[in-house]
Amino acid sequence: MRRHQRILGSRPGAGSAGRPSLGRRQFIGGAGAAALAAALAGCTGGGQMSRESGGSSASLQWWDQFRPLTKMLQDDLFAPYMKAHPGVTIERRQMDVPDLGQALQVGRRSNQMPDVHSLAGLGTSAAALVSESWFQPIGKLADFKGSPVGEFLHDGMHRFDGEIYSFPMFSGRWHEAVPWYNTALLKQAGVDPEEEPATWDDLRDVARRLTKGTGDGVYGIVVPSKETEYLQFLVNRLAMTAGAPGGIDWTTGAYAFDAQQYADAVEFLISLQTDKVVHPASPSMGARDARARWAAGQAGVYLWGAWFIGGLRVDEPEAVERGVGTWHIPCPEKSRNFVYSPPQSGTFWVSSQSERAKDAADLMLQMTTKEFQARLAAAMDQPPALAEVVEEAEVHPAYRQCVANFQDDVRIAPAPEVATPGVWQVLAEMRDVHPNLGDIVQSVLTGSTSDVAGELRRYNDAMSAERERAIKVVREEKGVEVDTKAWVFANWDRKADYDQQAYAER
């Protein structure tokens, strides 16, 4: 997705997210079979395969980061497809996000790419990779346009120059700051989970009660601040609950990271530290580390995505048995503001190096059916594209509540690349800006800086300047007609989804 356009990014990991991705221009040195073997050897996913065949070149290779989806992909997608197509063998490798990004970079350089892969760990937009010929189109190989997810296909995200390259397997209606709570700890501290903390102050109070009422070694909340990507997700969402439109104000097209709501969100995190309710090991934790501490009963609340419970079920099932629940994302005041997510980008892509594109496209098309989407929901990762299937799917009640809360709390935001084809070339040209929002939040939480407003203003100015530079390059060197007006959506209604009709009326 659009790492430079919007802090939300693609969250390239769903169930296995929360690890920093490679910078767009951060390529690892070396190439070839030895480098690829070394990259794969370091993968914590263990190289899980759908069929043991020694990595035959005749097999269809599939790489992703979705650990909670392992059994579902094997049993409900790969096995049935191989049974119906005896000549096809599918081999899957599941890796952690950084490992996957590294392996893909090496595979690209050494012409050893998998046939199908996700974008996790690459740290850049799908549009940029399309422009660099990473993928091949699949729209003429299988009927994605006529599939149940056909209405969710967007230009500049799934379609490029009229060709379909991918499709959204997941829903765009989600966020990464769901308050997940440990039922047993709430009970021990005398906190009624039915009394939902509607405001930031309410959540602070719950965190204080948990810290005080559960004994030594237990804290109200865990905030994994080792990874700046997690912090930028979290602060972006909290700022939206305070009334920010996100990193861009769609009514003007200007970056909005210097808005007061962002400073307020950072100050809220500081207040939790001041209260001494944040797990003291948080600065050294990544997102998965924090989940393990939460599962061990060391923290009562953890703000993370819908995939949280799916990951628990795989790695810490005892925590699910002990009790887990969820609330709406709190806002600063009792009056509620929406959080905004763009349309969901494509999840899986077929490599331009693949010689099995037809099999890959046929296999991916199976993922668009209502039956598969229901099984996807049962894995309790990011909500499926057909989110309505969650209501009847076999899921934990907390996951069903989480997805229902998304319907209340989240609206679909505009995506400039959908409205203006030249935008994706600007996004592809834009370079990483540092310190970014996550870097700034980390610096504030560790005491390296106290100038929150100043740091946010400098970042906002740097983002604006970088976009202007990228626009100039695209216009002058590539002849693309695009300017900052492409980021302006005068008909944006904060209370409504920005849908296909809204683009047509823009």
UniProtKB/TrEMBL annotation:
<dbReference type="InterPro" id="IPR006311">
    <property type="entry name" value="TAT_signal"/>
</dbReference>
<protein>
    <submittedName>
        <fullName>Extracellular solute-binding protein</fullName>
    </submittedName>
</protein>
<dbReference type="InterPro" id="IPR050490">
    <property type="entry name" value="Bact_solute-bd_prot1"/>
</dbReference>
<dbReference type="InterPro" id="IPR006059">
    <property type="entry name" value="SBP"/>
</dbReference>
<keyword id="KW-0813">Transport</keyword>
<dbReference type="GO" id="GO:0030313">
    <property type="term" value="C:cell envelope"/>
</dbReference>
<feature type="region of interest" description="Disordered">
    <location>
        <begin position="1"/>
        <end position="22"/>
    </location>
</feature>
<dbReference type="Pfam" id="PF13416">
    <property type="entry name" value="SBP_bac_8"/>
</dbReference>
<keyword id="KW-0732">Signal</keyword>
<comment type="similarity">
    <text>Belongs to the bacterial solute-binding protein 1 family.</text>
</comment>
